[in-house]
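Sample entry (144 residues):
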Amino acid sequence: MTDDTLDSRITRNNLRVRGFHLDVYDHVNNARYLEFLEEGRWAYFDEHLGDADTLRKGVAMVAVNLNINYRQGAVLGDDLEVHTMLSRISGRSAVMHQTIHRVRDGAPVVDADLTFVLLDMQTQKPLPIEGAFLETFEPLLVSR
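Predicted structure, serialized as tokens:
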């Protein structure tokens, strides 16, 4: 697999730390990182699943677990890059791996793994990730 192929499955989006992201200690509040990560996931879905018929009607991607590691604080004016990728599919769930790096020096700021399920909106039950769902997700998998 070439690096170009790998790169096409990873969504990157940038943001700048603004004053309203900061807490009383003048660094990004821990809850704001959750918003940064969610923005990264929305960008990922727009880029990779925007036209996926299998996920259009009656199915929601629902977060069921989030593990986040705070590596170092970001401060006012830092430019950050969020990397988002699909890292695992298993039965009824899948995992998105995300990292946030400071652009200036490449320093890791946050890494996280979010587990989600596909929820049938009518029955409110998780759907197995098989058939058309698996065909949609499998080409997007990135090994870490």
